[in-house]
Design brief:
With about 400 residues, the protein is α/β, with parallel strands linked by helices. The chain is built from 17 helices and 12 strands. It folds into 2 domains: about 10-30 and about 60-255, Type I PLP-dependent aspartate aminotransferase-like (Major domain) (Aspartate Aminotransferase, domain 2, 3-Layer(aba) Sandwich); about 255-390, Aspartate Aminotransferase, domain 1 (Alpha-Beta Complex). Helices cover about 40% and strands about 15% of the residues. A 7-stranded mixed beta sheet has the order 1-7-6-5-4-2-3, sandwiched between helices. Strands 8-9-12-11-10 form a 5-stranded mixed beta sheet. Helix 7 links the parallel strand 4 (about 150-155) and strand 5 (about 180). Bound molecules: pyridoxal-5'-phosphate. Pyridoxal-5'-phosphate binds near residues 87, 113, 153 and 218.
């Protein structure tokens, strides 16, 4: 069942036309590597692309993967989607196809993305220019160098910087460059980059889309003519999602909308409580009117997400004691799951950066990133309030 004009929650539950012949509400998993054909003519029909259908799972030609991609397409309001075995795999195909004339990466990006661009893809001739914070004003001038892909996250990790998707797309399109937004932090529930003017959107589905810290996956979505050229890369890199994680992810997408709305509400409550606590020097959360990117976030987002970054009124050593004193928040380097997680950017995502580079990105030793889960907000606030007892002001 597929409802073209339906709302996002209906799309999340009924967003695929691929259904079970026996009426099972959940498509059984096609846990097979290949599919048999009646004869050579039938095989060639699919292999040559004259008829779409199952063929070989690494090619993505498997009904479990089709169903996942169709559902995700419906939720995002995109024309086409490709599912990958991780967020990094999704980015690798994206950069391989569209980054060959150069990439401009705006704002702080996930550490793995920076590593991929700086250490690996540079060896293959894919050059990246990084523009941080207000250096985005130099985008126009930078694109005169010939780069044809602008890539960025909004909100960014961990400082939750907000970048104007429509304004960046305007500049990029004047230069004939494509715009790809890593929408992992916002999820399609809180932000639709394609509707704001971006050409492509990528995800680490490992985070909110999976939502239970039990599946590693990624997506790229956009117009069919932009997604089609990514298929040979995914096929040859062997980076397609497998049927079991695909089915798990399809299961998770059914509850995406309610989960993200609750993440938003819990994070807002945590951010407000932290802002009122004198032991916290600064709270970075797009939903707070005091946050510098708040007005822009209101303009382009429907919700402000589940990540709250706080800076405690204390040194790096005290910050470690706060982190280690948390009980409900678990110390783990991920985000977007039902359980609350905590990390210190200087010991995880930004560990390998020099002190100067951290300073350029506004990363301090007193910073704590909270991935606010779906526990009771009061319990999360009590956990933080208790852990902050080691801070003296
Ligand atoms: N993009 C963002 C914003 C991320 O936070 C991550 C992972 O933390 C990735 C991409 C990479 O995703 P994955 O770990 O699924 O490869």
């Amino acid at each position: 069942m597929k409802h073209e004009a339906a709302g996002q929650s209906t799309q999340a539950i009924h967003g695929t036309t691929i259904t079970d012949a026996y009426g099972a509400p959940h498509l059984p998993i096609y846990n097979t590597t290949t599919f048999a054909f009646e004869n050579t003519a039938a095989l060639l029909e699919v292999a040559d692309g004259h008829r779409s259908g199952p063929l070989y799972t690494r090619y993505g030609l498997n009904p479990t993967i089709f169903a996942l991609e169709e559902t995700m397409t419906s939720i995002e309001g995109a024309e086409s989607a490709l599912a990958f075995c991780s967020g990094m795999a999704a980015e690798t195909s994206l950069f391989a196809q569209y980054g060959r004339e150069g990439v401009v990466c705006v704002g702080d990006a996930y550490g793995g993305t920076m590593e991929l661009l700086t250490n690996q893809l540079s060896q293959l001739g894919i050059a990246t220019t990084f523009l941080l914070d207000d250096e985005v004003e130099r985008l126009d001038e930078t694109l005169r160098g010939g780069a044809k892909l602008v890539f960025f996250e909004t909100p960014t990790n961990p400082a939750l910087g907000i970048y104007d998707v429509a304004a960046i797309a305007d500049v990029a399109h004047r230069h004939g460059a494509l715009v790809a937004v890593d929408n992992t932090f916002a999820s399609p529930v809180n932000q639709r980059p394609l509707a704001l003017g971006a050409d492509l959107v990528s995800y680490s589905a490992t985070k909110y889309l999976g939502g239970h810290s039990d599946v590693t996956a990624g997506f790229v979505l956009g117009a069919a003519e932009l997604i089609e050229p990514l298929k040979p890369w995914r096929k040859s890199f062997g980076s397609c999602i497998a049927p079991e994680p695909a089915a798990l992810l399809s299961r998770s997408l059914r509850t995406l909308i309610v989960r993200v709305k609750q993440h938003n509400a819990n994070a807002q409550a945590v951010a407000e409580a932290m802002e009122a606590d004198p032991r916290v020097a600064r709270v970075l959360y797009p939903g707070l009117p005091s946050f510098p990117g708040h007005a822009l976030a209101v303009k382009q987002m429907k919700g402000f997400g589940g990540i709250v970054t706080i800076e405690i009124a204390g040194d790096a050593e005290t910050t470690v004691r706060v982190v280690d004193g948390l009980g409900v928040f678990a110390l783990a380097p991920s985000l977007g799951g039902v359980e609350s997680l905590v990390t210190q950017p200087v010991t995880t995502t930004h560990y390998d950066l020099s002190p100067e580079e951290r300073q350029r990105r506004g990363i301090t030793g007193s910073m704590i990133r909270l991935s606010v889960g779906l526990e009771d907000a009061d319990d999360l606030i009590a956990d933080l309030t208790h852990a902050l007892e080691v801070v003296t002001v």
